[in-house]
Each structure stands twice: as structure tokens, then as C-alpha cells.
Amino acid sequence: MKKLLTLALAAGAFFLVGFTMRDLQAARMPSTEALGNLLGKPSAEPLTLSASGVFGEALADIERNYAKPVDVSELRYAGIGGMVASLGDPHTMFLEPQMAQEFALETMGNFVGVGARLTSDPMGAKAVSVFEDGPAMRAGLKPGDVITGVDGKSVVGWPTDDIVKLIRGEEGTSVVLTVLRTKEAESLDLSMIRRPIVVPSVESKVLEGSGVGYISVTSFSEPTIDQFSKALDKMTAASVKGLVIDLRSNPGGLLNTASEMLSHFLDGQTVVTMRMREGSEQVEKTPRGRVRANMPPVAVMLDENSASASEIFAGVLREANLATLVGDHSYGKASVQNVLPLRDKSSLKITIAKYYLPSGADISRKVDADGQYISGGLKPDVEVKLNLDQSPIIGDPNSDNQLAEAVKVVLGQAKA
Predict the structure, then answer these.
(1) Virtual CA dihedral for 19, 24, 29, 33, nearest 10 degrees?
(2) How far is the C-alpha of 281 from the C-alpha of 296, rounded, in Å?
(3) Residues 189, 178: contact at Cβ < 8 Å?
(4) Is 403 or 14 the better-scoring residue by pLDDT?
């Protein structure tokens, strides 16, 4: 019996030494509370840590005790990202500092660069468009040119986003782009000075042969308001027979921008009703005193990538009997987000409300278990799928069958 008691005491001693070794090595008193909890003894004081306190405690424990050194910032961002993802809302997201900065630039519609819109190419990045009077245009860059190098560094095979980051820089600094002009089979070095650039989100033209005005809107950013107004001025001056507003693949943007643009058609009218979490409602209306007289028939073009402010703009015009919707169904994003900056220059883009069109219509997207579209969005009045077999050039009614149909619609209404 005495031998058993001795063994039990020895085991207990080894347990206590093992339990307290980390604290002793750190030259601090062992935690009697932790030991009491381990042995089943309740803590003298109940745990009152907040959720943020528990998160901070877990983060600190990992930093101190994990087998390998860790990057605390990466852990923190991963934790926040996981927390946001658990909400199950694809439109609520955490933006790390770099992403937050890029999102802010996109929303403001301006940045420091050379003034070209690029797309991927096996040889680097192809210039889809070159902004009028920008550094790139002045230096001689042309649409179709492929950028293969930046400041003497080859960018062949690079992701387009990485090439863009290399081209952007401080205002007033120079950058040399090596470009391949395929038609001329020559390589050129074009030097240019980085300047503040306002990204054109609106492009317009009068379609030859039909006399119909065409306005393409690619986003609803801050500069879009003025650009859209000038495009309408251009259409008025040309006395167009009809107007096609192309919102295909437009992911949306600022609600205020949509309201301002709608003010050319509607005076002080409801744009959306936003229902907040506690049940209260906020109503967004168009500014007064800006409606244009004698507007021609309007068609708005949509597809499944038309979302948010695009759907609001198109839905409001249709409900006011001021536009016919042509194309494919829209995405179905019926929520409103706000961007909340955090102290380390990251930010949260968070859903704050659900919106309803003036009629009360809910256009929320519904999907199946695999995430495939079931219903929602705006259903077009004239449904027509884009014929990809024709290798369409978007904005050219000779190959863009959806645009050709929209032109027919407005011309038919003009005759009526």
C-alpha cells in the first residue's frame, strides 16, 4: 500500500512538473487557474472575454507556441477572411490593404498610370483601348499592340494584373514599354510619363447606317456621371433616332451614380427602397431639375454579368415605361454594400441592406445546390442570346446580334 502511494505521488509530481515546465522556463509563476480547470476545479472568476478578446488570445498563443515562426498579419487576415466567409454572402468580403486600395481606385475611377485598358495575351498584355490624350496615346501606343516588356524587363507569360502593377507608379516618373505591333512585325520601345488617369467608363458613337446612338457603360464609378451626361449631349447634337445603352458585363458600382444618371430621365422619382437589418427603410430618389426633353426611344442591353447598379438603372427605366430591355437575364444582385475602412488600411465591404425596385419587385438571384442560376434578375422584354459562333465584335451591329436586335427595337418604336 505504501509502495502504491509512493508511485501515485511520484506520478503526480511528474505531471505537475510537466504541466508547469513552460511557465517555469519563461520565469513566471504557473497558472493555478489553468491547473484548477484541468483538474475539474471551477475557476474563481467566470470567463468574461469578448469575442475579440478570445480571437486575440488564440492569435497570441499561436504566435508564441506554434512549431514554426508565423506571420501574424497573415494569420489575422486569414481569421478575418474566414469570419466573413462564414456569413455565406458572396457580396460581403474582406479586402486586404492592397486589394482595398485597388478597389478604392476602381470606385473613384482614377489612378496614376499611362492610360490604356489591357487584356491577357500569350506574349504579355494586349492594349484593348488607349485612352484619348493620355500618356500612352501621346507616346504612340495603339489598340492591338502587345506589351512584351516594361523598363527592359520581359513580361511574356506574366498575369495581366502583375503587368499593370509594374506599369503603374508615382506621378511624374517615366516608364518604357516594349510593344509588339503584330501587323508590322516590329518591336518598339515607347517612353511615357505616368500621369493621373481618369478611366473612361462610358463610350459612345452614332451607328452608321441606322442613325441610332450607342452608349456603352462599363461601370458606375464617380466619373461615370459626367461621362454619361456628355454622351447624352453628343446624342442630342446628332439628333439620333433611337438610343441603345449597353450595360452588358457591367458589374455595377455606386448607387449614387445610378441615381444621377437616371435623373436625365426621371425627376425626383424613387430609384430603390432599401430595407435595413432592423426593418427600417431608406428611399433613394433621383435629383430634381435635370430631366432632358424629347428623348428618343431607348433600349437597354443586359446579360447575366449585368449586376447591382446596372440592374437598378435598367429596372427603373423599364418600370417607368422609358426603356425596353434587350438581351439576356441579368445577375440578380438585390443587396446594398458599404465599405468600412479598418485601421491598417484594409477594409470590409459589407452588406447593409436589401433593395427593392420602385414597384416593390425583388430581383434576388436564386441558385441550386451547385450554385447554378435558377431565377432572379431582370428578364428582358426582347430575349436574344449572343451568337458566339459569329465571333462578335461588341458594339458592331454587323456581328453583335444582340445590338442588331436592340437597334431594330428602337427604330420600330421611332416609326410608331
Answers:
(1) -10
(2) 34
(3) yes
(4) 403
Is there a contact between 339 and 347 (Cβ–Cβ < 8 Å)? yes
Cell numbers given for 324 = 425596353
Percent of the chain with pLDDT over 90: 70
Q: Count how many residues are written for the chain.
A: 416
pLDDT at 68: 93
d(CA 166, CA 159): 11
Question: β-strands 174-181, 186-193: how paired?
Answer: antiparallel
CB 278 within 8 A of CB 222: no
Residue carrying C-alpha cell 460581403 = 92
| Contact predicate 319/359, CB 8 Å | yes
- CA proximity to 216, closest of 128, 133, 154, 139: 128
Could you tell me if 203 and 235 are in contact, meaning their C-beta atoms sit under 8 angstroms apart?
A: no
Alpha carbons 377 and 329: distance in angstroms, whole number: 6
- Statement: residue 4 has pLDDT above 50: no
In terms of phi and psi (left: phi > 0; alpha: psi -120 to 50; beta: otherwise), the region of 23 is alpha
Cα separation, 172 vs 189, in Å, equals: 19
Cell 481618369 found at: 198
| 218 vs 64: CA distance, rounded Å | 49
Does residue 209 contact residue 200 with C-beta atoms inside 8 Å? no
pLDDT at position 46 is 53
Backbone angles phi, psi at 179, to 5 degrees: -125, 150
pLDDT-based confidence at residue 252 (cuts at 50, 70, 90):
very high
- For 314-362, write each residue's pLDDT tens digit: 999 999 999 999 999 999 999 999 999 999 999 999 999 999 999 999 9
- CB distance 389 to 383 below 8 Å: no
Domains along the sequence of the chain with CATH: 111-197 (2.30.42.10), 202-415 (3.90.226.10)
CB 272 within 8 A of CB 263: no
In tens, the pLDDT along 128-150 reads 889 888 999 999 999 889 999 99
Whole-number Cα distances in Å, 342 to 100, 101, 359, 386: 10, 12, 37, 42
Tell me the β-bridge partners of 186: 181
- Give tens-digit pLDDT for 366-407: 989 888 999 999 999 999 999 988 888 889 999 999 999 999
| CB atoms near residue 251 (< 10 Å) | 16
